[in-house]
Amino acid sequence: SAVISQKPSRDICQRGTSLTIQCQVDSQVTMMFWYRQQPGQSLTLIATANQGSEATYESGFVIDKFPISRPNLTFSTLTVSNMSPEDSSIYLCSVDRLGTEGNTIYFGEGSWLTVV
Amino acid sequence: AQSVAQPEDQVNVAEGNPLTVKCTYSVSGNPYLFWYVQYPNRGLQFLLKYITGDNLVKGSYGFEAEFNKSQTSFHLKKPSALVSDSALYFCAVRPPYGGATNKLIFGTGTLLAVQP
Q: Which residue in B42, B90, B102 is closest to A96 by CB distance?
């Protein structure tokens, strides 16, 4: 498995502000992913973050709104910029880890953001 | 388009009875298939996956899933449900091509409620 730590675990944010979420993995991984889970909804991929290159964003997500850093093979950050109540969601970091039985994608505990 | 369907928003079962949570997918090729569980106020926990080989896959907490290629299904099962199994269950598929498409496509989730 993988140990994935996210900070903050929860926060209440003011409209118009920005918040950076950190994701730390217990060992080196090539690919890290950021997902969003809006209230009562399923998970949607925001972007894929590879070390040494710009993140790859999914349709509907842009770098100006969700800038991502990937400074090394165990760490990534996601910033939610200029927040509005519609950004209230759980943001989950995940990693793709190769094991003896192929690749498995593991998730952190999530960062629960409420924008007021 | 690639998609995952979980036709039941909620499944109710009595403790001790067998449970099934349904999942069907629409992906070309031979995808990787996953089940995750989300307990209240928690992130996603990996339960099991199918990549290749035996169609019956065993995972955590006594859960198993059966891959049926002809029906493009990957239903989650457990012979005897526990109240503690009550949670939100997500089926996910990863298309069989690597690189930027390592992302998971999630179903909408099924809430499992086990009554004592």
A: B102
User: Which residues from B are below 8 Å from A when comparing CB atoms?
Assistant: 32, 34, 36, 41-46, 49, 51-52, 90, 92, 94, 100, 102-104, 106-109
In the predicted structure, residue B101 carries a pLDDT above the cut 70: no
Rounded to a whole number of angstroms, the distance from the CA of B88 to the nearest CA of chain A is 10
Tokens coding B27: 């992906």
Q: How does pLDDT run across A17-40, given as a tens digit for each residue? A: 999 999 999 999 888 999 999 988
Residue A63 in 3-state DSSP?
A: coil
CA distance B99 to B102: 6
CA dist., res. A48 & res. A46, Å (int): 7
Amino acid at B105: I
Phi, psi of B64 (to 5 degrees): -145, 160
